Amino acid sequence: MTPPKRVVFWPDQPVDQPADLFRALVAELGIKEYEVEGEIAGADFVAFVGRKRAEAHFGRKLKSGPVGESIDGAQAYVLPSTAPKQRGKFYEGVWRSFAAHVLGRDLAVRDEFKGLAPEAIKAALDERRFLFAVCCANIVYDFNLGSTVRTANAFLAGEFWIYGRKKADLRAAMGSYVYETIVHVPDEAAFAQRVAEQQRTVVVFEETADAVELATFSWPPRPLLVFGQEGPGVPPELRARADHTVVIPQYGSIRSLNVGVAAGIAMYDWHAKRACPL
């Protein structure tokens, strides 16, 4: 049996103060071999709980997640604080991703995949993926892009393209990005080339005068579902390349749907009309 990984936590604040979630969260995630303020020598992971101490150690600004550097051979991570006055809204997803690395298995997968390493889960999914792909614009560094990745995982898209900026905020993906083939498409030329290579039919979701309502839309072979971002929508150069433009009708007062919600509706419609059951 493989021995458990040794984890050392370095918190910004004492973790045993009232209402701190540290002990309960570590127990829930199944991390049993750990020390608080322990020696790094011999540890497999060192996890800073909060960013202040981590940034002082590395001498630069850091975000939550793997640091990309080691300390005395231990992989370094920055985890959002569990202290009641500091913890943020999205702390749990980062913690779960960290626990998956420590334990070698994901804690938030369907029963079929429980106990499998992330690479084994991705390999299993790759054998059954569907023929549609998803493209999401990344022009304004929008948090919602991550939720669209998570939705693409749920509906088992063939690929996920990020158009525009390479750096993406994937916190809302809740770690699902490790199971997806994510491709960076930097500009219109790269987009056009990949569409041609994969013989994709471009289906842009945007509210335009000539758009077809999703309920009556007939899906073409090998579609690429293109979504914009909150505010700017689909970039003009991608709208110009659309083979089809589709709209999801709305009946309330809000101008647009959340991107992740719109993508989920569209992917479900594809499955309902064209896909075989899982």
- Strand-pairing-aware structural class: alpha/beta
Shape field? elongated
The second-level CATH architecture of the largest domain is 3-Layer(aba) Sandwich
Q: Proportion of β residues?
A: 15-25%
Give the strand line-up of the largest sheet. Answer: 8-7-6-11-9-12-10
Helix content: 25-40%
| Helix/strand order | EHEEHEEHHEHEEHEEEHEH
State mean pLDDT (0 to 100 scale).
86
Task: Explain this structure.
This protein has about 280 residues and is α/β, with parallel strands linked by helices. The protein has two domains: about 5-105, 3-Layer(aba) Sandwich (Uracil-DNA Glycosylase, subunit E); about 120-275, Alpha/beta knot. About 30% of the residues lie in helices and about 20% in strands. The chain contains eight helices and twelve strands. Helix 5 (about 145-155) packs parallel to helix 8 (about 260-275). The model has no long low-confidence stretch (mean pLDDT about 85).
List the helices and strands and how they pair.
Elements: E1 7-11, H1 22-29, E2 34-36, E3 45-49, H2 52-58, E4 65-71, E5 74-79, H3 91-103, H4 118-126, E6 133-138, H5 144-154, E7 160-164, E8 182-185, H6 188-198, E9 201-205, E10 212-213, E11 223-227, H7 236-239, E12 244-247, H8 259-273
Parallel strand pairs: 1-2, 1-3, 3-5, 6-7, 6-11, 7-8, 9-11, 9-12, 10-12
Antiparallel strand pairs: 4-5
Helix pairs in contact: 5-8
